[in-house]
Fold:
Amino acid sequence: SKKRKSLVKVKASGKSTQLLPQLDMDVCLTILGRILKGSFSASVSARESILRSETAYSAIENALRKAQIAAENILKARVSLQPKVNVDMIRNIGISLECYGRFVLHKEAIKEDIPLGMPSELHALLDWISDVVVPYLVKLTGQ
Structure:
């Protein structure tokens, strides 16, 4: 299609290359966060397009879910080995978890059901944060 052709450049050798740049995690999370929080028309439009595309939604949801797995691994390692923690990685995990919560809420909201329900994914995320993360942080800070 025309749209696909605009994303791929064909070299003289017949091989194609991607024109889209590879972005680091900080940039991706910033962009996604702004799309999920933003009230500008471009953010709203991008958010609606993502949420209405099953492929886009699944890809982003799976990527954001991996943040919870990463956090669980860090918590387990901290309990047993007490290794040094990469602050940037912890920040990115926190931002990912926030984005994941917003993401599933927006997905629920586009259904336009009244009253708005709590998606099971969000319920599980909030339970995990309340039951695992908060007690760990309280213990870590000695409060």
Notes: DSSP finds six helices and two strands in the chain.
